[in-house]
Write a structure and sequence with these properties.
By secondary structure, the chain is mainly alpha-helical. It folds into two domains: 104 residues, no CATH class; 96 residues, no CATH class. It has twelve helices and no strands. Helix 2 packs parallel to helix 6.
């Protein structure tokens, strides 16, 4: 029978995070240089969950040491490694290479410096609530569901736990603190799931600042501020 969610996470939970970091990215790691995807994983994980790096290193090595055999394949009791464009015969060595890079980073404290997210995975890992907001309320269906952008923002606020709204405000300020160019903010919101243009006359960055300010102001339902 297929793995239960608990067993999946025990064996492969952090391995799965590493594999997801390669979505849309080449697996061009070499023994001397990690790929952009692995560098993004290291950068974000060092910042947010440094303890998980050792788990990733162990799970990668264990999977490479014990790839699923015929019986586990037939029963579905295994983790399917993302197709990263490598020949099947090269996947095992690639997994060992990833484990070696992570081990080196842990043992030497070699941490990728802070940077603007470099991959689709890193954008969503760093700004998860912003991804929910833009992807859920500003998809291509937004004009059919809401009268305008302001109505969509109000619907998000009224239907979302205030703690998550506060988290979104924090993520908006963090994104704005990156001080990107206008075109880079447009790229950022697209990476995070926004499929409609900001309302005129705002640029992507200007609109994000407007939303952050709007959501920072308590409503009558929130009660008086302390």
């Amino acid at each position: 029978m297929p793995l239960s969610p608990l067993e999946h996470d025990r064996r492969y939970g952090e391995l799965d995070q590493v594999m997801r970091a390669y979505t849309g990215q080449p697996a061009d790691d070499t023994p001397d240089r990690p790929s952009q995807a692995l560098t993004a994983y290291l950068r974000h994980t060092w910042h947010s969950r440094p303890w998980a790096l050792a788990v990733a290193e162990r799970q990668l090595r264990e999977y490479a040491d014990n790839p699923p055999g015929r019986l586990r394949l037939r029963l579905g009791e295994f983790y399917a490694v993302l197709d990263v464009g490598l020949a099947e015969s090269d996947v095992q060595q690639w997994l060992f290479c990833l484990a070696d890079h992570i081990k080196h980073s842990i043992e030497t404290g070699d941490v990728p410096p802070p940077s603007v997210p470099a991959t689709h995975w890193e954008w969503h890992a760093r700004f998860p609530e912003l991804g929910q907001f833009l992807g859920g309320w500003f998809s291509q269906d937004m004009p059919d569901e809401f009268d305008d952008h302001e109505a969509a923002v109000d619907d998000y606020r009224n239907s979302t736990d205030p703690q998550l709204v506060a988290r979104l405000v924090g993520e908006l300020h963090e994104l704005l603190a990156l001080d990107l160019d206008g075109s880079d903010y447009a790229l950022a919101v697209a990476e995070l799931g926004m499929e409609v243009d900001p309302p005129a006359p705002y640029s992507a960055g200007g609109w994000l600042a407007l939303v952050a300010g709007r959501l920072s102001v308590p409503t009558a339902e929130d009660g008086p501020s302390a």
